[in-house]
From TrEMBL:
Pfam families: NifU_N. Residues 4-124 form the NIF system FeS cluster assembly NifU N-terminal domain. It comes from the Bacteria. Transmembrane segments: none annotated. GO terms for biological process: iron-sulfur cluster assembly. GO terms for molecular function: iron ion binding; iron-sulfur cluster binding. This is Fe-S cluster assembly scaffold protein NifU.
């Protein structure tokens, strides 16, 4: 038995949505204050719905699995729904992360909000879920 469950291993070994989007509507990056790892998430938005998302993660396996899961979770969701996703939900969807790896999921949570923030700034929009985020 390893430290990681099968879902985490699957998203680490076969990450979904890796790479860059052409003409993204929003790009967010976030670096972990805990370990220095970095994550970039890009989104495409149409009528306030996230139609596509891609990520690049310069970080550990849990950060890669978290960004793979997080991008899968936000595609097809409205901006408000995506903003409501917490790192706890990302961990739940992954079936759990070791305690020392919880901050890796925070990276994904923040990178999503950062991408939406970029989109909101560029389009003169405000979202309640972004309150306090910059
Ligand atoms: Fe990122 Fe160890 S600190 S892999
Ligand atoms: Fe820091 Fe995973 S993102 S160890």
């Amino acid at each position: 038995m390893g430290l990681y469950n099968d879902t985490v291993m699957d998203h680490f070994m076969n990450p979904r949505n890796v790479g860059d989007l052409e003409n993204p509507d929003g790009t967010g990056t976030y670096g972990s204050p805990v370990c220095g790892d970095m994550m970039q998430i890009q989104i495409k938005v149409k009528d306030d719905v996230i139609t596509d998302a891609k990520f690049k993660t310069f970080g550990c396996g849990s950060a890669i699995a978290s960004s793979s899961m997080a991008t899968s979770m936000i595609i097809g969701k409205s901006i408000d729904e995506a903003l409501a996703i917490s790192n706890k939900q990302i961990i739940e969807e992954l079936g759990g992360l070791p305690a020392v790896k919880v901050h890796c999921s925070v990276l994904a949570d923040h990178a999503i909000k950062s991408a939406i923030y970029d989109y909101a700034q560029k389009n003169g929009k405000t979202y309640e879920g972004l309150a306090g985020f910059d």
